[in-house]
């Protein structure tokens, strides 16, 4: 018997076959009730990246529609087949279809998940005891490019703080592990007071750790087998060296852009989608 496998990656799902469009939702329910009902029903088929409930356009009949985004195309397909034409949480049936069109430009701008989304996804499939993370090293690397020193003249008024972090992910039940690197920095005018400096350092340390965690999860693939078992694979770059020490030298070579870790807002994500309902029966 062939065993089918579904792969889930820790990145923002952009594929149109992972997005469901649900409409013919009655206006008799509140938006909050619809959101909770849709989330509960469709999460039974797999982890959800996004649930969005909107009012119908003014030119349409009163009511709502919803958008549900999965990490897995197979789960989205099963959910569509199981829920289309059913009443779900109302007496009259709703229509459920896969997204039919998408802006091609979005496929070239794939982004990693946020730190909170990564942990949420890992907890869903591996459990709270199925993975762990630890900080290998966290260092102030402001001095690596001359930042952090105040001199004389107008240009010397700007102070830059910069932290680098290495985080290691471990999956004890799968004998897999990987590491990620995160960099956080902030520039500001004039020398801040002691309290403000402490607060900024704490914020940057947390930011660097979050980015390192995201970078580590970026290398992880969850393989969902039809038997119900889950395998974990870590994609390692043979040219990547993540030592326990000498973080400063590592960051100089592999400095990571902030934009790589910017989170995609729901509104930005939805603006990249378009739905063609004219062909739906």
From TrEMBL:
GO terms for cellular component: cytoplasm; nucleolus. Keywords: Cytoplasm, DNA-binding, Nucleus, RNA-binding. It holds the Pfam family DSRM_RDM1. Residues 18-101 form the RRM domain. Its main location: cytoplasm. GO terms for biological process: DNA recombination; double-strand break repair. One of its GO terms (molecular function) is RNA binding. It comes from the Eukaryota. Coiled coil: none annotated. It is found in: Cytoplasm; Nucleus, Nucleolus. This is RRM domain-containing protein. It comes from Aldrovandia affinis.
């Amino acid at each position: 018997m062939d065993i089918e496998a579904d792969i889930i990656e820790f990145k923002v799902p952009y594929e149109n076959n992972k997005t469901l469009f649900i409409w013919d939702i009655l206006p008799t329910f509140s938006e909050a009730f619809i959101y909770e009902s849709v989330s509960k029903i469709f999460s039974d088929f797999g982890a959800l990246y996004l649930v969005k409930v909107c009012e119908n356009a003014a030119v349409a009949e009163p009511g709502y529609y919803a958008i549900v985004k999965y990490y897995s195309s197979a789960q989205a397909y099963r959910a569509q087949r199981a829920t289309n034409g059913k009443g779900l949480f109302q007496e009259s049936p709703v229509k459920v279809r896969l997204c039919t069109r998408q802006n091609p430009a979005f496929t070239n701008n794939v982004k990693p998940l946020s730190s909170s989304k990564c942990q949420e996804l890992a907890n869903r499939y591996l459990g709270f005891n199925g993975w762990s993370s630890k900080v290998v090293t966290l260092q102030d690397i402001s001095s690596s490019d001359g930042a952090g020193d105040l001199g004389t003249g107008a240009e010397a008024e700007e102070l830059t703080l910069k932290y680098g972090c290495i985080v290691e992910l471990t999956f004890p039940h799968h004998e897999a592990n990987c590491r990620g690197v995160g960099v956080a920095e902030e520039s500001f005018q004039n020398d801040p007071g002691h309290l403000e400096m402490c607060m900024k350092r704490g914020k940057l340390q947390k930011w660097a750790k979050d980015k390192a965690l995201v970078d580590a999860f970026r290398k992880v693939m969850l393989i969902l087998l039809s038997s119900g078992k889950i395998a974990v694979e870590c994609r390692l770059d043979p040219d990547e060296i993540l030592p326990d020490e000498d973080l400063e030298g590592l960051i100089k070579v592999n400095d990571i852009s902030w934009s790589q870790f910017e989170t995609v807002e729901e509104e930005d994500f939805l603006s990249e989608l378009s739905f063609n309902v004219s062909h739906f029966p």
